[in-house]
Q: What sequence folds into this?
């Protein structure tokens, strides 16, 4: 296990480094010199050269990359060429908001999918189980931002029970904070819950056919008891994998949902950065999101090994 | 042996057929010019030649939906095409040399690309080259390559241990010949299913990108942008969000059902396993 962990950790570090090169190289392709853009068309060559030196863009790309990537490890994302503000604090401010959004969405998805999927599997022969499968198929076809718009229509426009957008920090008012996040959580969670329901259903169906479950039933446990005690842990292995992949999907979905509900998270920061041509900011946010996806994949792989003793 | 034609296959086929029909007809005819701005028709109610009404610029919603279907299919076809053309050979190469360095390299690069979701790629491409339909298609296509490569690799691994491949190898056929004559035809059905599922994901991605302003640029109609433009009018004119939303959901549902249906139809073994369950 330790050997596996070390190997997997090495892969994580290597892929993050390569991803860093890719992100950096991509942004280096950007036409135009940040110093020239910042100073406008009437700048003297001396002023441009001076600013270039200040930005550090006069150095060879390899040095620039090492400087940027080395800084990341210490939480230093550099200083924006456009706003002259340090980027690290902006990202860490937004990271919490996005994390809460994603984890809440995941919680909604799990709360929907585990009971519904298990129920659909246990009752797969009767109409209600089939109906759950059909509804989940429809849920999959609705993107998170569309779900968001529908939820706003129902809960904000019609029922006028919840705000249609905006974000209230928890420190200002915990109640309003919760109200401002309920619809975003649901928009992310309902859709992913629909996807997850299908995986839970098929995973539970798979273990229901296993011999050990039949043995448990033969030993006199009720089928619910047998499933509860022996089935769900085994069914959880494929589900955890999907859950991890979904966490990555949710992270990206959050970028769009933040736009729908005007929530100041990482997605909002990223899109504002692109709109303002703030190269280093975009580079930093993209890197954080990519690193998060890589980290999630790492955690999933490790969890997979922990859950399945056959792999140890 | 082929499976039965199933309900999902028919429903999926009908939905996809409708999208294709709308797109094809839109080349020759739409009720109105979908891009014609006319203040007199601003937010016109449905009726009188305007089946679904007009938007805040007075553009006919139904005509926009028809041309939007074209945008959706165009992006989907190119994106899935990129993914299939790049992903299939890579997956096959990895599957035919399961223990070689090539396989290891391909799968590692695959994992890395997997960490760059379509949306991030599109935002990066958009920042560098300016966002548009082309950058959206390339981003979605590249982000879909790992899915194809994985599926192609898994299917190739299965084909490589069959008797007919062993026989071909014993007969001295080269790798390329085996790949073309034996592997590709036998993993074809898996790839078709993957294409259908990827198409559904591509539609979702295009809609999200257009919604964010990183996809199809105005004035070309796109379902995602129709949704984005309708959002501010949700309180007064919710129908403007309803139709493009419905179009996206039905198109995605169609391709997903088609994929599932094809899987059952092309691979009856899977269907039997599911029926036993």
A:
């Amino acid at each position: 296990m330790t050997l596996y962990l070390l190997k997997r950790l090495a892969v994580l570090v290597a892929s993050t480094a390569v991803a860093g090169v890719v992100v950096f190289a991509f942004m280096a392709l950007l036409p135009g010199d940040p110093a020239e853009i910042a100073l406008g068309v009437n700048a003297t060559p001396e002023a441009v050269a001076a600013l270039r030196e200040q930005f550090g863009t006069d150095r060879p790309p390899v040095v620039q990359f090492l400087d940027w990537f080395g800084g990341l490890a210490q939480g230093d994302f550099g200083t924006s060429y456009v706003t002259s503000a340090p980027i690290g604090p902006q990202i860490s401010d937004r990271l919490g908001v996005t994390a809460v959004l994603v984890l809440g969405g995941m919680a909604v998805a799990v709360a929907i999918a585990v009971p519904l999927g298990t129920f659909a599997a246990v009752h797969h022969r009767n109409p209600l189980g089939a109906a759950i499968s059909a509804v989940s198929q429809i849920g999959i076809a609705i993107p998170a931002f569309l779900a968001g718009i529908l939820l706003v229509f129902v809960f904000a426009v019609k029922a006028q029970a919840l705000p249609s957008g905006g974000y209230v920090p928890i420190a200002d008012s915990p109640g309003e904070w919760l109200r401002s996040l309920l619809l975003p959580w649901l928009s992310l969670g309902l859709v992913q819950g629909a996807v997850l329901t299908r995986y839970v259903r098929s995973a539970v169906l798979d273990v229901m056919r296993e011999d050990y479950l039949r043995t448990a039933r033969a030993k006199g446990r009720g089928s619910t008891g047998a499933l509860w005690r022996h089935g769900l842990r085994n069914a959880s292995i494929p589900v955890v994998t999907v859950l991890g992949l979904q966490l990555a999907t949710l992270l990206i979905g959050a970028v769009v949902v933040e736009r729908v509900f005007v929530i100041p998270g990482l997605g909002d920061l990223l899109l504002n950065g692109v709109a303002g041509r703030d190269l280093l900011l975009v580079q930093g946010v993209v890197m954080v999101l990519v690193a998060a996806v890589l980290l999630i994949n790492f955690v999933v792989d490790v969890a997979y090994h922990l859950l399945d003793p056959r792999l140890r | 042996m082929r499976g039965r034609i199933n309900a999902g296959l028919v429903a999926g086929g009908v939905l996809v057929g409708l999208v294709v029909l709308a797109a094809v007809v839109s080349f020759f005819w739409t009720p109105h010019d979908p891009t014609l701005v006319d203040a007199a028709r601003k937010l016109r109610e449905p009726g009188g030649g305007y089946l679904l009404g007009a938007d805040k610029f007075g553009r006919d919603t139904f005509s926009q939906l028809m041309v939007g279907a074209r945008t959706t299919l165009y992006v989907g076809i190119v994106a899935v095409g990129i993914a299939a053309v790049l992903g299939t050979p890579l997956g096959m190469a990895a599957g035919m040399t399961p223990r070689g360095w090539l396989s290891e390299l391909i799968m590692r690069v695959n994992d890395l690309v997997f960490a760059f979701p379509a949306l991030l790629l599109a935002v990066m491409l958009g920042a560098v080259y300016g966002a548009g339909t082309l950058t959206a298609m390339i981003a979605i296509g590249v982000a879909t390559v790992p899915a194809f490569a994985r599926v192609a690799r898994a299917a190739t691994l299965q084909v490589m241990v069959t008797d007919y491949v062993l026989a071909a190898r014993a007969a001295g056929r080269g790798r390329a010949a085996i790949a073309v004559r034996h592997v590709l035809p036998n993993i074809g059905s898996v790839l078709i299913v993957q294409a259908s599922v990827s198409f559904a994901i591509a539609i979702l991605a295009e809609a999200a990108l257009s919604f964010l302003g990183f996809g199809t640029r105005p004035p070309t109609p796109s379902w995602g942008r129709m949704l984005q433009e309708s959002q501010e009018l949700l309180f007064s004119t919710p129908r403007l969000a309803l139709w493009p939303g419905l179009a996206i959901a039905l198109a995605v549902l169609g391709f997903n059902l088609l994929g599932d249906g094809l899987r059952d139809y092309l691979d009856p073994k899977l269907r039997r396993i599911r029926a036993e369950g």
